Amino acid sequence: MALAVSLARNLDLEPLIEQFSRSAGDYVPHDSLSFRHDVAGSEQTILIGAAGRHACSYQLTVEDTSLGTLSLTRCRRFDETELATLEQLLGIIVYPLRNALLYYRAQHEAATDRLTGLANRSVFGDALAREISRAQRYGSSLALLMVDLDNLKLINDRHGHSAGDRALQQVAQALRTSLRDSDQVFRYAGDEFAVLLIGGEGSAAVEVAERLRTQVAELSPEPVPVRPTLSIGVSSLRTDDDTQALFERADTALYAAKRAGRNCVYSTD
Predict the structure, then answer these.
(1) Distance between CA 34 and CA 51 in Å, rounded?
(2) C-alpha–C-alpha distance, residues 98 and 16, integer Å
(3) Which of 76, 142, 192, 269 would bridge with 135, disulfide CB 3.0–4.6 Å?
(4) Residues that are catalytic
């Protein structure tokens, strides 16, 4: 009963899984615990510890709703008594887990642009501040790209908003697939995107921006009736930068690219 009350108080998914692993370990010792669940069609995994040779896995459901898969591993086999105990413990976590997943998914949806599936502006400021702080702490590089889909209003006016939406989706997909997993992409505004290049600076960041611009310019005009193009402003982190300074330089560079005729890259470096 004490465990049930304790778990019910925790709506944060990862701490909830960690708490369950610690508590279950008192009854069923294990080397690792993993929990896999689906968010917006993408599988997410929380892993605690290092995987062992023997495993036991459970598909968790509550009231016909699938919650995900929880697995324990260790170097020696789990015996029948331990498995029975574990199943009792799983009966305690399913309702707190369901509540934590609902909370997690609500947060995910609030932070995600529905049209493109990218992180949205509401989380961009925090991400920018966090990456600037990390880069300054460890002396690493960081570059910000502000990206504009050229003439989105013209696409909407001539071909309809559905064509404009498809152009935005094409650009978002190109940005997502052309960058490293460590880089971060956001839909900043209606026709603008922001890209954080972790470890990027100077000419290397400009090369990335040029590659993105070229890839989008070479996209097939199908299913969008016009081929989208990008204007991109690039700025690298300087020693004394804060979020406003880095953002304003990248934004200024973007407007310089647009004034230069669009479909080009401009850098402040």
Answers:
(1) 9
(2) 11
(3) 142
(4) 191
The per-residue DSSP string of 103-133 comes to: HHHHHHHHTB-TTT-SEEHHHHHHHHHHHHH
Q: How far apart are CA 57 and CA 241, in angstroms?
A: 48
Cα distances from 231 to residues 41, 130, 186, 212, 214, in angstroms, run 31, 26, 16, 10, 11
Q: Token pair of 191, please?
A: 């026709």
**Cis peptide bond prior to 225, omega within 30° of 0:** no
Say what the pTM is. 0.71
Q: How far apart are CA 133 and CA 242, in angstroms?
A: 9
The pLDDT value given to residue 94: 93
Give the per-residue pLDDT at 101. 92
pLDDT tier, 160 (very low <50, low <70, confident <90, very high otherwise) = confident
Can you tell me the distance from the alpha carbon of 242 to that of 220, in angstroms, rounded to the nearest whole number?
A: 39
Question: Would you place residue 11 in the very low, low, confident or very high pLDDT band (cuts 50, 70, 90)?
Answer: confident
